[in-house]
Amino acid sequence: MDVTYTDNISVEDYNHLRKSVEWSELEKQQAQKGIANSAFIVSAVVDSKVVGVTRVVSDGGYIAIIVDVIVLPDFQGNGIGRTMMRKAIDHIRSTISEGQFVLVNIMTSKDKESFYSQFGFEVRPNEKVGAGMTQLIYHSTET
Question: Which CATH number fits domain 4-117: 3.40.1650.10, 3.40.630.30, 1.20.58.340, 3.10.20.30?
Answer without folding.
Answer: 3.40.630.30
